[in-house]
Amino acid sequence: MRTVGVEEELLLVDPDSGDPKALAAAVLARAAQDDPGQQVFEKELFGQMLEFATHPQSDMAQLGDEIVRCRKEAARHAGEIGCGVAALATSPLPVSPSLSVNGRYQWLAERYGIPTWDQLVCGCHVHVSVESDEEGVAVLDRLRPWLPVLRAMSANSPFWQGRETDYASYRSRVWNRWPSAGPTEPFGTPERYHRRVTDMVDTGVVLDEGMVYFDARLSARYPTVEVRVADVCLCAETAVLLATLVRALVDTAAAEWRAGRPAPDTGVSLLRLADWQAARFGLEEDLLDPVTLRPRPAARVLESLLEHTGDALKANGDADRAARGMEELLRRGNGAREQRELLERTGSLRDVVTECVRRTQG
Question: Membrane-spanning residues where (predicted)?
Fold first, then answer.
C-alpha cells in the first residue's frame, strides 16, 4: 500500500482581531524550545505563514490523526506568544506581507516584483509514494484531467485584501502568476520530464528545480508524486479526503499504465479552462467533466471521481471513508462556502477569521 504525506501551510493571525501577524520566527523558536530536534514545522515565504509536514502514512485514519495533532501543536506554540493559526488559503482581511529572512526569498522578490508580494497564500500538498520515476511520470500524465476537481473540492479562498473575489479559490489565481505554475502536457518518459525541468532551469527564469511549480510533479526530495493544486482545507476531514483520493488516483493511473492504456491527450489550453472553472465556482456550479471536458454538475463529477478510483479505494480499504467524506463535503460545502456563510451570518470578516481559528483545530 502506498504511503501518503501531507504538507499544510497555515495563516498566523491575531486571535481577537483576525489580522495576520508576522510571528513565524517566534513560533518556530517556541517549537524548537519544546523539541530541539523537531522537523515538523518550517518557515515559509512570509512571516505570516507557518508550514508543517506529516510523516508518510499508509493508514488514512492515522494520517488524519497526525494532521489534527500538527494543527493543535501549531496552535499551542502560536498561542504561547499570543497568536492563533487559521487554515485559510488567503487572508480575508487586508495585509502587508513581511518577507521571511532568506536569500532564496529575497531573490524571488527582486526577480518577480509584485507577484512575489502577492503570494501570501496557503496551500496543501499531497505526496504519494511511487516505485520509480517511470511510474511517477506515467501517473502524472494520467492525473492531469482530475486535478481541477481536487481544486474545486479544496477551494478555501473567496476573500482577498478585505474584498469578495467572486472566486472559490482565489489563491489559485494568485499562485498562477508564477511563470512555471499550472498544468502540463504529457511527458511520456522520465527522460522527457527531467529534460523539461532542466531546460526550464537553464533559461534562468526560474531559480532551480524547486521553482518548477507544476500542478503535479515528481518531488525533488522524496520518491513521491506531489499534487500541489489544493488550497489548505479549513476542515482537517477535507484534507484527509483529499489525500485519500489522491492516493487512489495514483493507484488507478499506475494500474492503467501497467495495463498499457494510453494517457489522455487533453491539451493544456482545455486543462486551464477546467482549472479556471473549478477555481471560479468550486462546487457551487458545473465543473468541466475530466473525460468529456464539457460542463457537468459538480456532484455528478465527484461521483465520477469515486467511480474512477473505486477499485483502488476498495483495495486500500478506503471506499467507505471516501464515500462518507464526499457526502459530508457536498452537504457542508468546501471552505469557500463555509467562509461565505460565516460572513452572511456575522457581517464581519474579522468574525470569519476568528471562527476559522476555532474550526482549524476541529
Answer: none
**The pLDDT value given to residue 75:** 97
End-to-end Cα, the chain, rounded Å: 28
CA angle, corner 294, sides to 293 and 295, nearest 5? 125
Phi, psi of 53 (to 5 degrees): -135, 135
> DSSP 3-state assignment of 187?
coil
At residue 34 the predicted structure's pLDDT band, cuts being 50, 70 and 90, is confident
Residues in the chain: 362
List, in order, residues 6 or more apart from 42 with CB less than 8 Å away: 28, 50, 51, 52, 53
Taking the C-alpha atoms of residue 350 and residue 343, their distance in angstroms, rounded to an integer, is 9
- State the Cα torsion 31-236-182-309 to the nearest 10°: 130
Which CATH number do you get for residue 41?
Answer: 3.30.590.20
Per-residue pLDDT at 38 exceeds 90: no
3-class SS of residue 121: coil
Which set of grid coordinates corresponds to residue 75?
496552535
In this structure, is the dihedral angle defined by the CA atoms of residues 194, 195, 198 and 200, taken in order, positive or negative? negative
Counted domains in the chain: 1
Angle between helices 60-79 and 236-258 (to 10 degrees): 140
Residue ranges making up the domain that contains 45: 4-360
Quote the cell numbers at residue 210: 524547486
For 81-119, the pLDDT digits (tens) are: 999 999 999 999 999 999 999 999 999 999 999 999 999
Distance, in Å, from the CA atom of 312 to the CA atom of 300, rounded to the nearest integer, reads 19
Q: Does residue 163 surpass a pLDDT of 90?
A: yes
Identify the residue whose cell numbers are 475530466: 290
Query: What span, in angstroms and rounded, lies between the C-alpha atoms of 85 and 21?
Result: 10
Other CB atoms within 10 Å distance of the CB of residue 268:
13
**Which of 142, 152, 193, 175 has the alpha carbon at shortest distance from 295?**
152
- Inter-axis angle of helices 60-79 and 349-360, nearest 10: 120
